[in-house]
Amino acid sequence: MSSTAIVFRKELREILRDRRTLVAIALAALATPIVLFVIAQVSTKTASSVYTVGYSGQIPAGLDVLFNATGLKLVEIADPAGAAKHQVDLGVVFTAKGVDEYYDPTRQSAQLADVRFQTILSRYDAAKVAASLQQQGVDPSVLNPLPVSVHPLSSPAQAAGNSFLSFFLPYILITMSLTGGLSAALDTSAGERERKTLESLLLTPAPRSQVLIGKILAVSVISLAAALAAIASMLIALTQIRFGEAGGTFPVHLSTAAAAVMVWLAILLAASFSSVTITLGTLARSFRQGQAYATPLYFITIFPASIVLFIPDFNPNLAYYLIPILNAVLVLRDAIVHGTVDWLSLVVTSVSLALTGGLCFFLALKLFTREALLIRS
Amino acid sequence: MTQTAIRVDRLEKQLGTNKVLRGISFEARSGEIFGLLGPNGAGKTTTLRIICTLLAPDAGSVEVLGFETRTTPQEVRRRVGVVTAEIGVYPRLTARENIAYFAELTGVDGQVDSRVDAVVDRLDMASFANQRAESLSSGQKQKVAIARAIVHDPPVLMFDEPTSNLDVLASREIREFMVESRGRGKCVIFSTHVLHDAERLCDRVTIIHQGQVVASGTTGEVRGKQEDLEDAFLSLVEAAT
Fold it and tell me: Phi, psi (5° rounding) for residue B34?
């Protein structure tokens, strides 16, 4: 058996007996469904919530019916403006000239009540105008001289689903590829120094490059398992958890191309992150010091996924696909949204991630063969 | 005549700004316990680390059973077993798994289990061999450390302050093991600053002080007219300072 295989088997055995790593993988698998469940509960509660509108004056005929149908509860009070600060969600004064509305934009319930109120007023206005026109013998369609018939080429619900996935899936893939194997990476690198097993290991005739590859492979397997477990649990949760008042599940559809790209990128990311974190761990003298070195990685990984969230139409040129992590986010986003793969982008991304992993491997190997490694420990 | 197992020739080494070794030379033979003595910071551990190829010398050379440490480090590592005071073991592996891991890495192909069984038996470890290392006592961990160092049956064994973290009973077992290894024809290097142990165990000794050899020879020769090795050591060190 090669030294790489011996080290790989031993590291995997140790990792699987480490509670920290097992907890990290379990959390990776459970965290997303829990978050989605909470989101579903909040969205359902928000949709079915009834907001209170404090009013004074005479309500126009028929408007009260619309209030009740839209989840706004009318309560007559003396001072709607004052009550809108705390007592009610919205204050409304009906006058002969029209309506005065009072609400506090810093309160979320007031914002939601305002949206419903505006919707009611629009419908009410449209109905009144149409009725008035009909009374005068005018076709109400005169108000809409250019009727538009919308014909979506794909399901809008599906598009919304893809948009959601194009952010969350790369985000979870990247963060879980990093965090899932981080504890194992630091344990197998900084941990060797901390528990004073490094010297004995380096005393064996096993080539250090093979020892390092064995360690990286073991950590990569754990990172990959954590990332895929998190994504699988997210996809399952999305098909099971019901969102909103209507109680529908999320329209999840991951094309074969997107799934294949995701798995390929997960492998590359797991290998790259393993190399990076083992390099950082080799620099560190202890597990805790390794954690401190690895902390900036969290920010580096979150940033690229955030770009997709905040700039959904971000369509950069090919050079951007050389930037590690960002490239994975972009390729995966494109595959999810369009259901196809741009092979050139994928090749550039793969080369970039492989080079990053390779560079870190050689850096780790350099550190692993330096005398300072032993002297410092 | 016994074979020269280790030949150290005019070894020099600087670590940072500190010149640790300043031309150390000595020879150790198979079938003897060779004492490498000196106060803390004399350069004993650095010398051992160069012999076992963990560090490279700045000048001079080391040969282990005819293999030069610079040019054939892997051949040297196959022939050396090292036990240090720092008992680092893999806590989540059992004692047996710890030993087997090093047996595999040192190239004990095809007979790992039988080799592990042999050292477990030899060091009387059967009662805890299947326990995870994290649950073992210091003495038991030291036995694991010895077992992994000898599982590939190396002809050269190096002990660097092996008893400094151990109780009386465990220290005694280590000393007995060194004597037993000498009886098996091994070259045993014993690095220590505990001169009482060295006087009882070593056939020949070299005393290092400030990176230089201040005395070398059989224990009797180095002791000379002094009452014991400790007195000889103190007078030699004082003379060299």
Answer: -105, 120
Same domain flag for A34 and A113: no
Asked whether residue A125 falls in the same domain as residue A247, the answer is no
The structural domain count of chain A equals 2
Tell whether A113 and A187 lie within a shared domain. Answer: no
Residue A40 contacts by C-beta under 8 Å, 6 or more apart in sequence? A241, A242, A243, A244
Token duo for residue A92: 């409304």
Give pLDDT, residue A211: 93
B126 pLDDT above the threshold of 90: yes
pLDDT, tens digit, for every residue of A183-215?
899 999 999 888 889 888 989 999 989 999 999
- Examine the domain organization and report whether A35 and A52 are in the same domain: no
Q: Does A150 map to a domain?
A: no
User: What type of residue sits at position B187?
Assistant: C
Q: Which domain does A137 fall in, by range?
A: 48-142
Per-residue pLDDT of A303-335, as tens digits, reads 777 776 677 677 788 898 999 888 998 898 888
Q: Closest CB to A14: pick one of B88, B93, B104.
A: B93
Interface test with B, best of A203, A208, A370 (most B CBs within 10 A): A203
DSSP at A87: T
Compute the nearest-CA separation of B46 from chain A (Å).
10
Q: Rounded to an integer, what distance in angstroms lies between the CA atom of residue A276 and that of residue A282?
A: 10
Please, what are the domains in chain B?
A: 4-79+156-240 (3.40.50.300), 89-153 (no CATH)
d(CA A120, CA A114): 10
Distance to chain A for B224, nearest Cα, Å: 37
Q: If you measure CA to CA, which chain B residue comes closest to A202? A: B54
Closest-CA distance of chain A to residue B105, Å: 6
Domain co-membership, A366 together with A222: yes
pLDDT in tens, B60-104: 999 999 999 999 999 999 999 998 877 889 999 999 999 999 999
Residues A27 and A73 in one domain: no
Which ranges of chain B does DSSP label H, i.e. alpha helix?
Answer: 44-51, 73-78, 95-105, 112-122, 138-150, 168-183, 195-201, 219-223, 229-240
Assess whether A358 and A277 both reside in one domain. Answer: yes
Q: Tens of pLDDT along B47-58?
A: 999 999 999 999
pLDDT tens profile B28-38: 999 999 999 98
Predicted structure pTM score? 0.81
What is the DSSP pairing of strand B18-29 with strand B4-15?
Answer: antiparallel
Does A80 reside within a domain? yes
ipTM reported for the complex, 2 dp:
0.88
Report if residue A147 sits inside a domain. Answer: no
Interface contact B74-A205, CB threshold 8 A: yes
pLDDT in the model for residue A374: 66
Do A245 and A163 share a structural domain?
yes
